[in-house]
Amino acid sequence: MAVCMENNGELPFQDFKGKGRKIKIFASYYRPHKKIFFTDMICALIIAAVNLLFPVLSGLALNNFLTGSQYREFFACMGILVVGYILRAGMQYYVSTWGHVLGVRMEADMRRDLFAHLQKMPFSFYDKNKTGALMSRIVNDLFETVELAHHGPEDVFISTLTFIGSFIAMMLIQWKLALVLVFIVPLIILFTAILRKRMARASREVKVKVAEINTELENSLSGIRVAKAFANEAYEMEKVESCNQSYKEAKQDYYRYMGSFQTGYGFLTAMLNLICICIGGFLVMQDQMQIGELLSFVLYINAFMPHINQLASFMEQFTVGMAGFSRFVDLMDTPTSIFNHPDAHPLSDVKGQIRYENVTFSYDEGSGNVLSGIDLTIEPGQTVALVGPSGGGKTTMCQLIPRFYDVTSGKIYIDGQEIHELTLHSLRENIGIVQQDVFIFGGTIRENIRYGRIEASDAEIIQAAKMAEIHDFIMSLPDGYDTYVGERGVRLSGGQKQRLSIARVFLKNPKIIILDEATSALDTETEIKIQNALDTLAKGRTTLVIAHRLSTIKNADRILVIGNEGILESGTHAELLAQNGEYAKLYQAQFQLT
Questions:
Q1: CA distance 192 to 96
Q2: Over the chain, what is the mean pLDDT?
Q3: Are the beta carbons of 310 and 318 closer than 8 angstroms?
Q4: Are 317 and 199 in contact (CB under 8 A)?
Q5: Where are the beta strands (DSSP E) in 502-590?
Q6: Dist CA 473 CA 425 (whole Å)
Q7: What SS3 state is found at 355?
Q8: Going by DSSP bridges, is the β-strand pair 409-414/417-418 parallel, antiparallel, or unpaired?
Q9: Cα(190)–Cα(188) distance, rounded to whole angstroms?
Q10: Rounded to an integer, what distance in angstroms lies between the CA atom of residue 337 and that of residue 359?
Q11: Residues β-bridged to residue 228
């Protein structure tokens, strides 16, 4: 079942409509694994049949064959039960093994579809959603959902068959005694439902506390260096201990309800057996029932009683599982505003001309514009620098080119082709970006550089590292290119991480380059080396440079001063200084500071 977004932006589950939509979607995930599912149900049927067979054959063997000295028939019944239990063991193995395999495969399918959908969501989606919350959707919610997917159908099937079959058999054995159950069993069901509900509420509270303590632990461990730097270890201990105490209290409440349930359920089950034996014994005394029948009756009670608990457990499982699945569907139903249009075609033979035509952009409807009426043409091979105050829209202006965000109005062209007419993959494949906030994956140096072009050879990776002025540093490490960099590159300095990201762009070798404060984390000596490398990389390529250090962009073909009103000034370094405007003020301020 493929649910990835189509080029026209249609949602994965749009074909599922009407009442019970989410149940239909849930059922659709069984379809690729229907052989396992139906085999699982057949095994569940055999398990239920053997459960019902035991009281029948036991009563028959004791009541008729044993008392009638028909020993051969008695042992024949016992042999049938042995075969039945061997068969049930085999069926139970399948249910326990392949039933869980079914759940795991469904979970993998859901996670694949959800991750594929998240890959297509725009930057604006991630601006509004926390990573931890999305991780919970991908991991915790899906686990609860597949627990329902696996256990739900077979538990309901076995329990319902056993419950109905047992009651019919008991009615046939002695209807008067069976009527006693009509009055007592509903009370047990009511007790089970009430205590199960309280346990579920307590369990949810425990999960909330677990989430809180996990969040606090993640924050404290991630910020352990800051905590040590400020000597705030005791403060961090207090925060974690507060969460720890809340978790402990919630867990204690849960165990109290669980203890009450298990004690009460065990007591009620024992009393039901005792009452049935007492009444059944009276019926035996009145010659209305035989001892073997009474034994069968008690065995049937013990056969269906666990399934009352199982059905109550299913209701809790259904509530939790469907809640998780509802959150899954809600996320899958979140439309993406950025997708391939039906007639989109690949960008090929790129020259690198970029043109903004009356471009306006705002992050949210009703909020102020970040960019207004931008008209700009950048010729192939030009280096254009964007300078100005923070928040003026420089980064946003560059992020519109690869369609990380879509323009509110106006159009952007590459080589005369409107970017909405181009496939996203080909558009972004031809744009290289080095951002101010460098992200390093928790792998090796080789893997991080190779991210620029996955199919690159080791020789190409080494060449890219040399051009980024980081090869010598890599070779000084004990494991060289196979050195593990730690989570988010924690074992590297800021400058080393930035040079790795620059090496990625060298390896990608795109026609259009965006450098967003690409040398901001580098010392002066390294900055000079990287600047020379970037100048080499920029030759023959269209380059947009966002910079606060004006000394790094003096040689740009054109410098744009971006402000709240749009492009305030445009020209070369010398021309802008001669104008004695905003650029000249910025340059003089930096020169005086240095």
A1: 25
A2: 83
A3: no
A4: no
A5: 512-516, 542-546, 558-563, 566-571
A6: 33
A7: strand
A8: antiparallel
A9: 5
A10: 18
A11: none
Read off the DSSP letter of residue 420: G
Q: Which residue(s) pair with 546 in the sheet?
A: 386, 516
Please give the Cα distance from 54 to 296 (Å, whole number): 8
| 299 vs 57: CA distance, rounded Å | 11
Cβ pair 464, 449 in contact under 8 A: yes
Residue found under tokens 């802008």? 576
Any residues with CB less than 8 A from the CB of 493 and at least 6 apart, and which?
A: none
Ranked by mean pLDDT, the top range of 5-9, 31-35, 47-51, 441-445 is 31-35
Distance CA 333, CA 16 (A): 11
Residues 152, 315: Cα–Cα separation, whole Å: 9
Helix 34-60 × helix 142-173 angle, to 10°? 30
Q: With helix as H, strand as E and coil as C, how does 186-246 read?
A: HHHHHHHHHHHHHHHHHHHHHHHHHHHHHHHHHHHHHCHHHHHHCCCHHHHHHHHHHHHHH
pTM over cut 0.70? yes
Rounded-to-integer distance, Cα 192 and Cα 484, Å: 53
pLDDT tens digits for range 136-159 = 778 877 888 888 888 888 888 888
Beta bridge partners of 412: 356
What whole-number distance in Å separates Cα of residue 551 and Cα of residue 590? 9
Reported as a pLDDT band with limits 50, 70 and 90, residue 558 is: very high
CB 517 within 8 A of CB 552: no
Higher pLDDT, 88 or 488: 88
